[in-house]
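User: Some background: our group keeps a shared notebook of sequences we're curious about, and every so often someone picks one and asks for a predicted structure to add to the entry. Today it's my turn. The entry only has the sequence so far, pasted here. Could you supply the structure so I can complete it?
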Amino acid sequence: MEMNFQKERRTILICGAGIAGLASALFMSRAGFRVEIFEQAEKLDPIGSGLQLSPNAMHVLAELELEEQIKAVASAPSKIEIHNGLNGKKITQILLGDGIVDKYGQQYLVIHRADLQEILLGACLDEPDIQVRMGTAVQDAVSHANGITVIADGPNGTGNYRGIGLLAADGVNSIIRSECFDCTKSISTGTFALRALVKSQDMPTGLHLENILMWLAPNAHAVVYPVRNGTYHNIVLTVPDNFGEKSKEQIISGNKFTGANIAASLDKWDIGFTQLLDLNTRWTSWPLRGAPKLDKWSEGSIVLVGDAAHAMTPHAAQGAAMGLEDAAVLRWAISKRTSLPEAFRLYQSVRMPRAAAVSQLSGKNKKIYQLPQGLAIFRNMGMRYMGGEKIFNRQDWIYRWKPPIIEPN
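Assistant: Of course. Here's the predicted structure to add to the notebook entry:
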């Protein structure tokens, strides 16, 4: 069922050119809409460094016919190795590889965030019905009888832009969410992520660098995996707000720093991980913020997608995947309803329960990963007893998801 809008009134406005915004633009364009994307950054610099693309995310990218481009720059680890952060001993491992393809129909990949964003942006720029306005910051949006007007500051001053609907994909600190949904700003999760990107040739020997490596310890855990087709490694250390006073000061200021002041707070960790802190690289720090809990994601012809709707901690490795899923479900909802408000409400009813469940699981994972030493002993014994397959199957319901089918007219 296609929507009955006059062609001159078929513009969808999208605030934010992140993963959710760009994917949504591609789906909207292919649904027959003209799309304008507003991005406050003058160019798309990578935020963070790496991310994991589980099968549910890859099904969306395949739907967008971007699967082969993704595989050309991503890495396909054969397993996840889970280690005790304090003594380095391997707790268990989770097999990936061909078994995941057989089970879910897609690979489990890891990729540099910038590479994924560049592929999505390139696909948008190739679409004649998508216009990307860089360096244009949305300040407000107003609903009226004829649709939506966005007020944005761009290179040529403040302008008004009109469309029939607005997708707010402007991240965890969404302007549209705060202006149009009368809610608080993002909320603290009590956690920071310390990240580094290292050339693989500079990584120490003795680690199985082709795999995803995890170290679990009280109050902190680390993840390392290859990106950019194995030429770099992404290192992420998740720590609480009260992590080392000097480190805390630099985290809050957003400065970049070396691993020297991190090591002092990890003095009891095994050298398997702490040797990475000696590498000559810069560390960046990012507070892990969450979206406030909302009763609704849509208001008339305005709808929230991606982190603007459901920013969550990364401990289920599903942040990007949820944004990609949002985009696919929006396209499906529009095919099922005859007005944007109805379609947005349908999207909301489908996506809110799933995003909430994934967010809840992510929170549980963090608690499990960072158990205090006494309880960690029983966690490690339990993980060894369960084995990797049963541990992986805790998220089976996430990975089995596929984009809803668009029925032909």
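Suggested note for the entry: The two ends are 6 Å apart (CA to CA). Confidence is low (pLDDT under 50) at residues 1-8, 246-255.
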